[in-house]
Amino acid sequence: MLDPERFFKEVYPFDRLPEEEIKRISSNLLVRYYSKGETIFTEGSPPLEFLYVIRKGAVVLKRDRQNVDYLHEGDSFGYVSLLGNTASSSTAVATEDTILFMIPKPIFLRLVKDHEDFRNFYTNKLVNRIRKEKPTIRIGFERLANLPVRKIKLSPPLFVEGKESLSEVILKMVREGLTFAFVRDGDVVGIITERDIIRKVLAEGQDPKQKKAKDIASFPLIEIDADTLLFDALLLMAKHNIRRLAVRDKGKIVGVLEDRDIISYESKNLLFLIKDIGRAKSIEDLAYTYSLVFQVAVEYITEGADPELVGRYISEINDKIMQRVVFLTIKEMGAEPPTAFGILVLGSEGRKEQSLKTDQDNALIYEDRPMLDISPKKYFEEFSDRYTKNLLKIGFPPCPGGVMLSNPVWRKSLEGWIKQVDMWIENPKGQHTLNVSIFFDFRGVFGSPSLVEELREHVLKKVSDNPVFLAFLASQAVRFRVPLGFFRGFVVEKSGEHKGEFDIKAGGVLPIVQGVRVLALEHKIKSTNTFERIRELSSKGVISERFSRDLEDAYKFLMGLRLKFQAQEIIKGKEPTNYINPQALSRAERSVLKDVFGIVEELQNLLRHRYQLRYFM
């Protein structure tokens, strides 16, 4: 029932380990049961000898008698002592009957040493712990006081009949992955929880087959309306000393609010969201997580977060969601891919520079091997159609230009992509121009790295050996005009929806992105991120160190303004755009923006001179 191998394959970061490592962990771990209220270890105790992973139950970590962390199934603790070989910095107490998997210290330290993803997970957690000045759980009461329960992702309801045997109910709970079930007994509804089964049946040595569901269910059911504020729900839980509330909407029970749901909502950090994505069992689960991503991003932006980090944050979460969608789509099809393949992300997602205005820009590459029983082309056609529809269900907007897997133009074998790239490069005109600007920032997000790298090597060689095409790309970067007039005043829209505003993407962001891209392609730089490209160009001596710093600062400032205005639009309930109002900026910001546009023009002049663009203009 505990099945450690299956458990670790589904829990981040253990799911990133090779299968043989998971088998080794499973065969060497210890299993320990702690009853509610039992202390696992105490603050100041000698260095720990195990990493503790919660298989079932919950644990609270305390320091100086204050709660500092509240942990559930799949969470691990004790790593601070293990990594530093120091005394325990907290006291761990089981807050309910708990089963722990205990991984010996030598195995944990070896995993940290040998596996980068595993190491990064725990070292990042350690850094975050160290940075916290007041390591206490803080619930945003103001936010909870204004948030209705219906805005929280609820656990689905499971109904059973009171006359059913408890053993049948347990099987249903296991199949649904739930720790509770609602029990109907005539016109009355009650609830059975995992704790009830342990305390009222198993602990008493009774046979679940001989018990009916209604015999141990708690009646009546304590419930709330979906429009109840979350803060009031918390108070009701505290009043009755319970962890779950049934939620009704228009008289019908639609779900269950659990205490961990509230904690999850308040824990919208990168690591939590990644773990939540890895556990998602449905497209609906991913849709809820995706809805949180932009809430968090807006909060980060309004708090003044580094725009480079915000872009990476959004892209990292998007990557994980798309990877999970691949698995769910394959499961939905009921057939494994016949050949190796890869999902490519393009444009701003490929550069890891996402803004709050985004859509699907993706492509698919596959190995076209002759198959006797199935056509790879036909398989990936069905896969791509389902994959795109699943992303739409999650909330990823469709690409207006059709740059999506479901469009056969963006779904090809490796050989097909090589021919396509060659045609674009040899015929740089019309739609090819737009396709190149989107595609040449491609990055593999799932699947075969070798297919992606072989395509990248071909692109870099083909482009760098073609000076005419490089000049054509450079001409696309200089055709954008910065929105400054002859007397250095801002040039804005004179009428229409965006009167008094200008497009900061067209006037500043795109010239830098495209200008830096062409220089990077010429010098066979594999990085797709604009900041990384700028740094590598500087290290290769293509641009000066001074100009490199200016470009980075300019690009970061432009991205910051773009994100700031997009966040303001989202807060007002509007669709985010790329327009900003210069009159909404402070005098200092307007002054800096004019200097930034000067740096953009300096880059454009460099491109005109380097690629002799007078012949293209």
Fold blueprint:
Blueprint: H1 4-9, H2 19-28, E1 30-34, E2 39-41, E3 50-56, E4 59-63, E5 66-71, E6 76-77, H3 79-84, E7 91-94, E8 98-104, H4 105-114, H5 116-131, H6 141-145, E9 159-161, H7 166-176, E10 180-185, E11 188-193, H8 194-202, H9 213-216, E12 223-225, H10 230-240, E13 244-249, E14 252-258, H11 259-265, H12 270-279, H13 283-302, H14 307-333, E15 341-345, H15 347-351, E16 362-366, H16 376-394, E17 411-413, H17 414-426, H18 431-439, E18 443-447, H19 449-464, H20 467-478, E19 502-503, H21 504-522, H22 530-539, H23 545-571, E20 579-580, H24 587-610
Parallel strand pairs: 9-10, 12-13, 16-17
Antiparallel strand pairs: 1-8, 2-7, 3-6, 3-8, 4-5, 4-7, 10-11, 13-14, 15-16, 15-18, 19-20
- pLDDT averaged residue by residue: 85
- Please describe the biggest sheet, giving its number of strands, its sense, and whether it closes into a barrel: 4 strands, antiparallel
Task: For the largest sheet, list the strands in their spatial order.
Answer: 1-8-3-6
Count the E strands.
Answer: 20
Coarse structural class: alpha+beta
Distance between the termini: 71 Å
> Which ranges are low-confidence, i.e. pLDDT below 50, for 5 or more consecutive residues?
130-142
Shape: elongated
Report the β-strand fraction as a percent range: 5-15%
Helix content: 40-55%
Count of DSSP-assigned helices = 24
What's the gyration radius in Å?
A: 28 Å
